[in-house]
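Quick start: read one record
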Amino acid sequence: MVSCVQPTTAVVSLMEQDVSGIKGAIVVDVVEDAQQPYGYDVRLGDNEELEALFDQEEEEEEEEEEEEEEEGGDQVDEIKFRRTFVVVCNTGLRGGAAAIILSEEFNHPFRNLCGGLINYFNGGGELRGPSGEVVEKLHPGSKQLAGYLLRKNEMPIKDMLIDIGRKSPVE
């Protein structure tokens, strides 16, 4: 799964999402797929949250155009700034691929948070638990990636999965 920030899209596994994430993130399913151009497939399904953000932005753009027409319209064209979506995964690998795919899919700028949630967490970034409470824990995705966590992590290694695809805790 992948996440984005303000608005954020998170690319994290369901297991990772159950531990923590970034406030306001919209979760998108991203799976490894060697047949795809970037090595991953973004499975949007019926992602109503992401679709709603684009609908809201289109409405805002239409309102701005109407206001410009009412004001005369002969003025120098202004640069229009669109929201930029930030895609976040644990390390930046899935997020980088997802940012490219989502940019192409929506014809809208998506960017990747370099270093992902691990870098964000190490830098003091605030994470939220599933209920919205601030937490000091991050599921790094694997036991190996846990070694990159420099900040105290309240998630016990024994509760982490070796591989995101596995369903049993690390022994």
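The first helix runs from residue 14 to 17.
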